[in-house]
Known about the structure:
Shape: globular
CATH class of the largest domain: Mainly Alpha
CATH architecture of the largest domain: Orthogonal Bundle
CATH topology of the largest domain: Arc Repressor Mutant, subunit A
Structural class: alpha+beta
Number of strands: 6
Mean pLDDT: 89
Radius of gyration: 17 Å
Order of helices and strands: HHEHHEEEEHE
Helix content: 40-55%
Largest sheet: 3 strands, antiparallel
Amino acid sequence: MKKIITQVGEKLRANEYKLTPQRQIILEVMLENKDKHLSAEDVYILVKRKAPDIGLATVYRTLELFLEHEIVHSVNFGDGRKRYEYGDSTEGHHHHHAICLRCGKILEINEDLLEELEKQVSKDYGFTVLDHELKIFGHCSECK
């Protein structure tokens, strides 16, 4: 985790920002919950346990700063709430998601089966694909 924190600090400094103690705590929460899809409110609740003096506005601003600098990426599952995940978008394609419409469970799909489609879109339309996102909606095994 220390290595990632150092890298994020360097990335922010290269863009004339600082990794303040508050931003570092928010980053630590994101790293500790890498496998989760956290809303800003979820991050805030977790941050409050470590640093009660950090406000919700600071969490929102920090997540948007991290998003702008590709430290986190965001996903909208169609419920009107932006969710954040730690991950550098330059590392390759994001994983995909299967979302249960009954209980809200979110399953991560790590297989990337869209590469052929990307190649075809590039070839047929002269379009340079930088990334893609796939959301599959249905019912999980417990809800069907």
